[in-house]
Design a protein that fits this description.
Layout lengths: L6 E5 L2 H20 L5 E5 L6 H9 L8 E5 L1 E4 L9 H8 L8 E3 L7 H13 L5 E4 L23 E5 L2 H9 L12 E5 L1 H5 L3 E6 L5 H9 L17 E6 L7
Parallel strand pairs: 1-10, 2-3, 2-6, 3-5, 6-9, 9-10
Antiparallel strand pairs: 4-8, 7-8
Helix pairs in contact: 1-2
Length: about 250
């Protein structure tokens, strides 16, 4: 299914949505690996990515030794090894299930200023080929919430305060028991390094995301809904379940 010039794909449930996105990402990786020694991918860490990751980890065609992985954001203030850390999520749902050796995870326990500099250098060493991302209930991409989102951000990464709707989402997603458990600060890649990637695959699930999806697809391109910038990318593919797409 398509909507004007956008590459929009809609499926009945989260499994079929994730499988379709996973297959498209797999094919993109294979195409790139045919001509490149390394494919550089930025991964989101969220329940919306579960079924897509499940597909990728079952792939027998991807050469994970030829992938350099990054994550796009991380909480500040959680205990080392906390299951709620995005690095823990990626280890649990992706990295531990494949033979990947080149992975770069944001470490909020390092001196934050130094971590921003060093991680930004790793990101900028070469072009990013693929970004696998979602959309937040407030329309954010990574942790670029509306109050801090900047389409022309001069920084590659920054420390942000999370807005309340973003923090409530983390409870809705089952990542934390109460909003008081959700950190108030995080490190995030800014919008420009995400947008500059050659291929974007955006997976969004559930009725809680339907308003954000509507604003992304039908609204103006504005930092009031940061994900709206995705509609201007020439190679962004959207994967929605019917619940997420229900308000369009």
């Amino acid at each position: 299914m398509s909507n004007t010039h956008l590459n929009i794909n809609i499926y009945s449930d989260k499994i079929s949505t994730g499988n379709a996105a996973g297959e498209a990402i797999e094919n993109c990786i294979l195409k790139l690996q045919a001509t490149q020694s390394m494919v550089r991918i930025i991964f989101a860490a969220a329940p919306s990515q579960d079924s897509m990751f499940s597909y990728l980890t079952k792939s027998e065609r991807i050469d994970w030794n030829k992938i350099t992985a990054f994550n796009m954001d991380e909480y500040i203030g959680l205990e080392s090894g906390s299951e709620a850390l995005f690095s823990s999520y990626l280890e649990r749902n992706l990295f531990s299930r494949v033979t990947i050796t080149h992975k770069n995870l944001i470490n909020p326990e390092h001196n934050i200023s130094e971590e921003l500099i060093n991680y930004s250098k790793l990101l900028l060493e070469a072009p990013i080929d693929i970004v696998c991302l979602g959309i937040g209930e407030n329309g954010h991409i990574a942790f670029n919430d509306p109050p801090v989102a900047d389409f022309n951000d001069p920084e590659t990464m920054k420390v942000v305060l999370l807005d309340e709707k973003c923090r409530v989402q983390q409870v809705n997603d089952g990542c934390f028991e109460t909003i008081n458990d959700v950190p108030k600060q995080a490190v995030t890649l800014t919008i420009p390094p995400l947008f500059k990637a050659n291929y974007l695959f955006c997976v969004v699930l559930g009725v809680n995301k339907s308003e954000a999806v509507k604003n992304t697809i039908t609204g103006p391109v504005s930092t009031l809904c940061p994900a709206s910038i995705l509609t201007t990318h020439v190679n962004c593919k959207f994967y929605f379940d019917t619940a997420a797409y229900s308000k369009i």
